[in-house]
Amino acid sequence: MRRPCAPLAVAVAALILTIAGCVSAPPRPVPAPAPPPDVSAIPNAVPQAEPRSARGNPPFYEVGGKRYFVLASAAGYRERGVASWYGPGFHQGSTSSGEPYDMYAMTAAHKTLPLPSYVRVTNLSNGRSVVVRVNDRGPFKDGRIIDLSYTAAVKLDMLRAGTAFVEVEALTTSAPTATAASNAAPASLYVQAGAFGAQANAVRLLEQLRAHGLGDSFVQQVETGDKPLYRVRIGPIPDVREFDRLLERLKALGVPDARLAAD
Prior knowledge:
This protein is an alpha+beta fold. 19% of the residues lie in helices and 29% in strands. The chain has four helices and twelve strands; from the N terminus they run αβββββββαββαββαβ. The chain has helices spanning 6-24, 150-155, 199-211, 240-252, and strands at residues 60-63, 66-69, 78-85, 107-109, 117-123, 129-136, 144-148, 163-171, 189-196, 217-224, 227-234, 259-262. The strands form three sheets. Strands 3-7-4-6-5-8 form a six-stranded mixed barrel. A four-stranded antiparallel β-sheet has the order 10-11-9-12, covered by helices on one side. Strands 1-2 form a two-stranded antiparallel sheet. It starts with 5 loop residues before the first helix and ends with a strand. The relative contact order is 0.14.
């Protein structure tokens, strides 16, 4: 069999590489449109009665080997934790509800709230708050409780840091939606490793934490009706980086359900 001459072999090889490159090259992201002149002037979402989305509301689903159960209702939901935000790389992509993601709309992603839901998100560091419509699922990182749109992050002044300690509270159609920055000093924040009705159980966990170098652990007793509750907390904590570090340490110690807590 005759071998192709060198120039022909080079050309064939180049053609193969070109075809392979076309097959394996990832699609280019769609560039986000230019932002509105004043993103901070975009109004909050306004709670309204809406049917549950036909997509994104299974009884439960799994991501990364972890199962998440979708709440039957948003009523009464209130939680503190870390917010993140997502922007240009996801713009116009499909959300879990099937709606296109708009980074300039007042929307958010949540792991378990029904789609759609409306929540007030308050930055615990500066008192700023916004109202957003939850139409997507996520974020799926430990300690993160909500993923906000670009605009919501701008209005909460968390864009540069990328994360913020927040409180998320579900709103109904009759709930007031006015938001304003608070002049009150931010609350001290802690990691709560557990809460027990029996003091002995709280002390046992406290001794375990201190034995592993978590010397700023303590037990806080609070009155809840007829019986006291004993909370095992660590802190105060200065920032999200320290919060993430403590969550990883606690998980390694067999405490997987630690959460953010405040005075």
